[in-house]
Amino acid sequence: MFKKIWLWIGRLFSGGDKHAGLRHYALFKDLNSHELGLVFDLLHPRDYRAGETIFEKGFPLEAIFFIESGEVEASEIQPGSGARILKRHQFIGVLDLFAQNKRLSTATALTDVAALALSESDFWDLVNKFPALGVKILRACCRFQAKFMFGQAPEHKA
Predict the structure, then answer these.
(1) Per-domain residue ranges of the chain
(2) Degrees to nearest 5, angle at CA 138 with 29 and 9
């Protein structure tokens, strides 16, 4: 037992931030090392081939995708809004969290894509179990949505 506690304390104060790469995603940029670790433990790698549909408009939301490599095309959300091309360190699906859990667009892999998936249920469990962490992530979601609603091109896209 003492050994486990000692290892935990060592990791806590080691200064090592092995999940710091997650800060490239705007939703996670304000998280500390411990919070990044909590998020990382819920992410699942997903790979898609060029031309493969990742999800379709109108279908139930299952996950938010964080693009590690490749390019994804997201169809227009509203008529005239245009399709969006998403690349490394961008994400898709956050707007869907607040749209009756239905997909607002269709996402298609333009190239081979490696992504990290965070399930909708894991997202809400995380927010509920860790309120301070949840506030940070939800605040980032609000910033993203505000930029999207007011027609500003968010640095992290749809």
Answers:
(1) 41-120
(2) 55
CATH number for region 41-120? 2.60.120.10
Q: Helix (H, G, I), strand (E, B), or coil: what is residue 27?
A: helix
Q: Give me 119's structure tokens.
A: 């399930």
Q: Which DSSP symbol is given to 158? A: -
User: Above 90 in pLDDT, residue 111?
Assistant: yes
Q: Where are the beta strands (DSSP E) in the chain?
A: 44-48, 53-55, 63-69, 72-74, 84-86, 91-92, 107-109, 113-119
pLDDT given for residue 139 in this prediction: 94
Q: What does the alpha-carbon distance between residue 79 and residue 120 come to, in Å, rounded to a whole number?
A: 26
pLDDT (tens digit per residue) in 30-78: 999 999 999 999 999 999 999 999 999 999 999 999 999 999 999 987 7
Rg (CA), the chain: 17
